[in-house]
Structure formats: structure tokens, C-alpha cells
Amino acid sequence: MAQLAEVGRSLLTAAMAAPYLGREEEHALALRWKNQSDEQALHELARAHMRLVIALAVRFRHYGLSLADLIQEGHIGLLEAAARFEPEREVRFSTYATWWIRASMQNYVLHNWSIVRSGTSSSQKALFFNLRRIRAKLAQGGNLPAGEEVFTHIAAALGVSRSDVEFMDARLSGPDLSLNAPLGDSESSAGMERIAMLVDDKPRPDEAVGLALDTDRRTAWLNEALTALSERERRIVRERRLAEEAATLEALGDRLGISKERVRQIESRAMEKLRAALTKRHMENAAEVMI
């Protein structure tokens, strides 16, 4: 009730006082809005369905978001439904609008429940809004599997992977935590923040510089050794060994007008010449630059 009070007495009073529309009245208003852009018809159509918006907003109240904001988002969905509604299909506007209102509220929840995006795919959205409901339903019926088997059961019920269920369960199990929050109250962690515990797999600056220098040096050695090959040998080595996606023997043979077996022979001979050139000029580093 406290959440309903925050919405505002005037809005609730107006929503409750709005008349219910019969099928014919609803159809006539929808036609006036679609064919004549009659804003008064749109206003009456929207006002009559604000009860529906409020009722759907209450269902999302457990996500810790403002009910007033949820109703506002639902109203946007209601107007979107009015813009897309086709009266000639003879479907009740309330039935059509329910989907748009709920979708608008769901998007709002997904974007504001946490600073971390929780649902970026259809399966993740289904998990976000149904995981707790299914778990509670299983618990009430006494059918909640023990241990991690519950993840397998929920995954089968929703048609998603078990890993997605485990990930979403972990996301929903705790609130957001700031990386600048204190790590703990013990003396060993006094003054430390959570960010200090993050592991960086990247090399240290001095290692990165060393790797860059080594890469440049090895590239220069390789380019120098390639000059010992003929033009066709260099092309085969580059396309077979140095390209991001290696060309097949057959494809390279077609481009060069030779058989794939001949390409293999030339490649093998070119690699031997390349190794010999590298060994001759840089004996002590030959093992590092072998390809």
C-alpha cells in the first residue's frame, strides 16, 4: 500500500474513475485515432486502460524500483500499443496493449535493476523474470531438487542452458558491490578495497616492452630470411604460414596453376631454405624464430 501511495492519489483516483469501455466503444475510439489522428480518442483510450497499467506495474514491485516510474514506463508502452493497433483485426485493445505495457516495464527493470546488464538475450530475459518464480513454485510443491540439480530442472523448464541458469542465479543472489568498498574488517585487509583483489592477466609494462622489442626483432629476421626465397616460394609461405587464415593446398594450386602436390613440395623446400637462412645468420636465436 505504501508503494501505491507514492504514485499519487490523483492518478489512482483518475484511473479508478475512468469508465470501462465496451468492445464497440473501444473499437470506435481506435478507429478515430488511427484514421483521423483524433487525440481526444487517444486520450480516452489511454485513460480507460490506466487501471491495466497500474495492475501490471504492481507485479514488478519486488525489483526495488519506483512504482511511479514503472507506471510511467507502462504508459509509454500503452501509447506504443495505440500507435500500432489495427482495429480491423477485431482483437480487444486491452489484450494487444498488455504485451506492449509489460515489455516496456521489463525493459525498464532490466536497465535499472542493476548497473550491470542482466538480460541481453531472449533466454537471459526469460531467466531474469522467471527464475525466482519457478524456484518458488517448485519449493511450494515440494518438488525442489536437491543441490545443483535444481539448475538442470529449471534449464529444462525454460529451454535454456544450465550455465545460463547458474550465471543468472549468481547475479540475482546478491546486490551490486562497489569496487571501492572496503575489503573487510580484519587487520590484514584494513584500508584495502575490493579492486585490489582483481587479477590482471596482462603482462607488466616492462614485460610488454620486452615482448614488443622481441617481436620487432624476430619480424625483421624473418623478413630478411624471406629474401632468400623465390617470388613463388615467398607467396606460398606467406599464404600458407603467415596469413591469418591459411590457404589450402588446393586453393593455392588453383591460383598458381599447379597441382596441390606441387604446392606442398614447393612449400616444404621453401621452409628448409628459410630455416637454413635463419640458422646461418642468427644461429643463437634460431630456435626462437622457427615457424
Describe this structure in words.
This protein is mainly α. It folds into 3 domains: 111 residues, Four Helix Bundle (Hemerythrin (Met), subunit A), CATH 1.20.120.1810; 51 residues; 85 residues, Orthogonal Bundle (Arc Repressor Mutant, subunit A). It contains 15 helices and no strands. It is elongated and about 95 Å long.
Coarse structural class = mainly alpha
- CATH class bucket of the largest domain: Mainly Alpha
Shape call: elongated
Largest sheet: none
CATH architecture of the largest domain: Up-down Bundle
Q: If you consult CATH, what is the topology of the largest domain?
A: Four Helix Bundle (Hemerythrin (Met), subunit A)
**What share of the residues lie within helices?**
55-70%
* End-to-end distance: 72 Å
Number of strands: 0
Question: Tags for this entry?
Answer:
67% helix, 291 residues, mainly alpha, elongated, Arc Repressor Mutant, subunit A, single chain, Four Helix Bundle (Hemerythrin (Met), subunit A)
Summary, kept brief:
With 291 residues, the chain is mainly alpha-helical. It folds into three domains: 2-112, Four Helix Bundle (Hemerythrin (Met), subunit A) (Up-down Bundle); 122-172; 205-289, Winged helix-like DNA-binding domain superfamily/Winged helix DNA-binding domain (Arc Repressor Mutant, subunit A), CATH 1.10.10.10. The chain has 15 helices and no strands.
Task: Please give the structural blueprint.
Blueprint: H1 2-7, H2 9-17, H3 23-36, H4 39-48, H5 50-59, H6 67-84, H7 93-112, H8 122-140, H9 149-158, H10 162-172, H11 205-226, H12 231-242, H13 249-256, H14 260-281, H15 286-289
Helix pairs in contact: 3-4, 5-6, 5-7, 6-7, 8-10, 9-10, 11-14, 12-14, 13-14
